[in-house]
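Dissemination and training. As part of the outreach component of the grant, students in the summer workshop were shown how a complex can be specified as a set of sequence lines and then modelled as a single object. The example used during the hands-on session is reproduced here so that future cohorts can follow it. Participants entered these lines:
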Amino acid sequence: MEHRHLVLAYAATIGIHLIYVTYVAVRYRLSGRGVKQG
Amino acid sequence: MKLWRWIWLLVTLGVLANGFRVAMFVVPPDAQQGDVGRIFYYHVPSWAGMGLFFAINLVCSLVYLGVRNRNHELAMKADSLAVTSAEMGVVFCLIGLVTGSLWGRAVWGIWWTWDARLTSTLVLWLIYVAYLLLRRFAAGPQMRTLAAVMAIFGYLDVPLVYMSTRWWRTQHPAPVFGGAPGNGVAPSMMPAIWWNLAGWLMWGIFVASLRYVAEYRTQRAEQQEALKALDMEHVIEAGR
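and obtained this result:
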């Protein structure tokens, strides 16, 4: 039981960071190509 | 991506991997909570990251307001860093709330309670989400000034969050760093804290550096587009 919460907390930490860094990577690439962003 | 960013990323991933190893396999389990207490090593660095990036947002907002009419280049840099640090702070804050909720469920038996610490933290997250929404959807030349003013008032919640466990009786435990005598972290836990603190802050700086470049490039492109449009207007005026 207690390991489930530990694993979920670690997965949430990694998952949220991965989602955000993907968004940042896309914006970084687009800005380098001079694509206008919203 | 520049070479220094690749090196920084490699070192960061190394520190994070070692942080994981130390947190999960090296330091002993918590005497009362057992292994679930290891959430601490992800929970605390998230708050440290949030504190760092919201503080950067505050400083950049003040700089923007101070120089926006005198030094456009510095103002653009400060504003780009302000939005970058607000996003990074929101990400760290969200992780802190989620890991805290999971920890609360395991230890207290509840996902959430409206005590002063949790409520003020949720309000803080909502303030900065509102700041980002304002920046995303508001238009016009005053948007950045309004956002900077909002960021300064929003930051007032940070000391409230920090002091909440000292000022009020809360479900959330008393502070372990700089708290009352008798509270504190066992020396055997410290390596896991330091490795994860360093790793997640380094990760935050890496991501923020990319986001800053993207924002600065975008703002610069928008500025050049506006200047071109202004030039065209002058040409049309001259032709009349």
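Chain A touches chain B through 25 residues (CB under 8 Å). Students were then asked to discuss how this feature might be tested experimentally.
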